[in-house]
# Entry
Amino acid sequence: MSVAETCYIESKCGMGTFLRVMSFTKENEHSFTPIWEVFENVERLCSRFSSDSQLSLINKMAGQERVQVDEKLAKILLAAQRISAFTDGAFDATVGAVTSLWSMKPHDVKIPTEIEQKAAESLVNYRWFDIKGRDAFLAKEKMKLDLGGIAKEFALHEAAETATKIGVGSAIIDAGGDVCTIGAKPNNRPWRIGIQHPRRAKTLLASVVLQNWDTVETSGDYQRFIKDGDKVYSHIFSVRQADVSEKLISATLIYRRQHELLPINGAAFIASGLAKSKAFLEMLPNVEAILVTDAMQVFITEGLRGYIHILPHQMRHQTFIFNRRAC
# Structure
């Protein structure tokens, strides 16, 4: 690697995951501190595990009174509402009553009873959450917001925007496998991103050249889960589960980011299943996707043709290129 291509890397833990910034900008020319501050600020606002976060205050005041929130949190909540409406609740930010029943920590596993889960599910309905300006309100007592499916993406996009503003011209920001790139690699080479194999640890399913895109998001049932006998419970919760015959275990979205987040996320794809996910993609012509079913069938939008390489493995899988107009 030449001097011009020297890479500078900083890593931290935050937002419940591993964060990394890798930059080809000259050493010490720019501090990564403003980038880290973005993640820290979003986590302070959105953490459901911190009793003094603004999100926790909204949950505490559920069914009682409105809560004025920070402008940034208001933006995140509005984005969550847009995703909830677009997916008709496949992603629902009010799922917190359900997720708070579970613990997937290695030394603190908690699995709720069916009665507990049914009671919590009765409190999940994004239509009972209201955000006007900077005022937020949950309509029913014991309702809870959980922004785990969106806060990290918001922070990642804002971190990329911040990096650009402070003059970082060539970098990649990785937030637990979700990636934003800034500029191109040295010599104007495009970035190549690996996609995790959903059933083989530390193994890639594919690699994608980001010739026309700068953002990659991946959700999968393998990222956090617990086992109880023969049952496996994923960290992706939804009150509506897809039919077993079209179950998705991994969903990767590839696109060029805009000022607003997409009206959908990977978790909604996982919860919706293959057929509904194809229907979503038909409404999102600028989003490419890699969808993997439980039967290890890999579905790829045709816009990725020529930019994606499916890696060979001992585990066989079928690969299909689909035209979203035919979905």
